[in-house]
């Protein structure tokens, strides 16, 4: 009875506790202290469990979010890159357009010009190029380049002049105002015929300089700022404190002297090799040309030539110098000096800066005498009269003259538009009128 009565009291107490808790907390304190403490403990434990469950659920959700972020990380990066490119209009245009550059190739007859280009750009081709260049040959190559998220296809225009210096005037044809900003002149000299290489180099570089000087004067008359910028750029590789600055006349278009047929040259006597190397270093130094020796059967030499060529076109890293005459010479323009070149043999002078190009040439010609072969390629057509053919020739000459005048007129109109844009527009706006990239803009485009 007691226990039963106790249980009834407990149930009544429990109901009264719940009512009293709702109505008055103080009453429950006084009448049922033990049960209240138990209920508070149970409530606290339940709250703790709920908190733990919430923490676990939050941790699991954050983990799932992190994994989703990680899976979408690549796309987020792509979006960020694209947004940056949209903000920088110049960067977008540079990334979206491939570079067009030009190579003007000339030099010794049968010196290996075509083979050099084939070895540099055509990896799967054989070393022997069967087709001979007739006069002025044009080809092009594509070079794939990656910049950021874009894959670009650059175009390299290659103009090759045949037959040595016989038709040197034709080298002026491909050199124009649109391509001098990003072009390279490559002069291939046959080292197996050292008696001819100095004259060949001088005549080719003179043609190039004459043509470029005429273009710059024409640009200056129209108020273009390019001539000054290109001239400053040609001096940039020498710096402000070069000791030979007053003796140097660098070409506006970067030039490279390639001494071909090194396999025959390396068998020369040591003194002859030393003098040839000094002479080539001298003419390269005073004209702002780079110098490299090359053998068509040596893949490493072909790679060095390519590295030097791409240094000027795409700002590729320049190869390191090698000035030992017993090894293949490689000297970058702006890194040599008259003191390091030294004096030619049998010379009474004590200061290399006192010697001129004429002095060097006279001493060189005493060592390597020229062949006295006078070839007359002119033909007196009056001895062979052909009225029909002569009339056709006159017609074709007139057509050619009209064609040249038309091209010149179109080029002048384009240049006028370019000058209007360059006078007050931004670089991005100038590009809309067809202006070629400057070397300063092309400098940061290559990632090799």
TrEMBL record:
**What keywords are annotated for this sequence in UniProt?**
Cell projection, Cilium, Cilium biogenesis/degradation, Cytoplasm, Cytoskeleton, Developmental protein, Dynein, Microtubule, Motor protein
Q: Output this protein's name.
A: Cytoplasmic dynein 2 light intermediate chain 1
Entry's localization field: Cytoplasm, Cytoskeleton, Cilium axoneme; Cytoplasm, Cytoskeleton, Cilium basal body; Cytoplasm, Cytoskeleton, Microtubule organizing center, Centrosome
Region (Disordered) location: 23-42, 47-67
| Stretches assigned to coiled coil | none
- What's one Pfam family the UniProt record gives for this protein? DLIC
Q: Which GO terms describe its molecular function?
A: dynein heavy chain binding
**Single GO cellular component annotation?**
axoneme
Query: Can you tell which superkingdom this protein's organism belongs to?
Result: Eukaryota
Segments of skewed composition (Low complexity): 58-67
A GO biological process this protein is involved in? intraciliary transport involved in cilium assembly
InterPro entries xrefs: DYNC2LI1 (IPR040045), Dynein_light_int_chain (IPR022780), P-loop_NTPase (IPR027417)
Which protein family is it in?
Belongs to the dynein light intermediate chain family.
């Amino acid at each position: 009875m007691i226990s039963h009565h106790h249980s009834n009291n407990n149930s009544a107490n429990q109901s009264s506790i719940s009512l009293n808790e709702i109505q008055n907390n103080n009453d429950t304190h006084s009448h049922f202290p033990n049960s209240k403490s138990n209920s508070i403990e149970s409530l606290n434990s339940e709250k703790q469990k709920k908190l733990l469950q919430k923490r676990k659920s939050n941790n699991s959700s954050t983990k799932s979010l992190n994994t989703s972020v990680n899976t979408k990380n690549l796309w987020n990066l792509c979006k960020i890159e694209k947004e940056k490119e949209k903000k920088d209009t110049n960067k977008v245009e540079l990334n979206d357009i491939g570079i067009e550059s030009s190579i003007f190739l000339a030099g010794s007859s049968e010196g290996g010009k075509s083979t050099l280009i084939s070895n540099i750009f055509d990896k799967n081709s054989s070393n022997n190029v069967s087709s001979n260049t007739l006069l002025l040959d044009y080809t092009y190559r594509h070079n794939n380049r990656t910049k950021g998220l874009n894959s670009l296809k650059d175009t390299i225009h290659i103009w090759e002049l045949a037959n040595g210096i016989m038709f040197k005037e034709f080298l002026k044809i491909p050199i124009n105002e649109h391509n001098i900003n990003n072009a390279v002149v490559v002069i291939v000299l046959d080292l197996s015929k050292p008696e001819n290489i100095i004259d060949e180099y001088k005549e080719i570089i003179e043609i190039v300089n004459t043509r470029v000087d005429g273009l710059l004067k024409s640009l200056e008359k129209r108020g273009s700022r390019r001539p000054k910028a290109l001239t400053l750029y040609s001096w940039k590789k020498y710096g402000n404190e070069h000791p030979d600055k007053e003796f140097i006349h660098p070409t506006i278009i970067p030039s490279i002297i390639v001494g071909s047929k090194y396999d025959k040259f390396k068998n020369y006597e040591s003194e002859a090799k030393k003098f040839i190397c000094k002479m080539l270093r001298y003419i390269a130094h005073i004209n702002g040309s780079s110098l490299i020796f090359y053998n068509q059967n040596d893949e490493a030499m072909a790679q060095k030539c390519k590295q030097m060529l791409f240094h000027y076109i795409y700002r590729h890293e320049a190869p390191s110098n090698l000035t030992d005459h017993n090894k293949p010479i490689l000297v970058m323009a702006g890194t040599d000096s008259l003191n390091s070149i030294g004096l030619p043999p049998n010379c009474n002078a004590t200061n290399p800066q006192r010697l001129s190009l004429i002095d060097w040439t006279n001493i060189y010609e005493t060592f390597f005498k020229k062949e006295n072969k006078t070839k007359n390629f002119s033909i007196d057509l009056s001895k062979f009269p052909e009225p029909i053919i002569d009339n056709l020739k006159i017609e074709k000459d007139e057509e050619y003259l009209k064609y040249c005048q038309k091209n010149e007129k179109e080029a002048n109109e384009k240049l006028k538009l370019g000058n209007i844009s360059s006078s007050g527009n931004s670089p991005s706006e100038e590009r809309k009128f067809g202006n070629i990239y400057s070397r300063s803009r092309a400098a940061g485009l290559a990632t090799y």
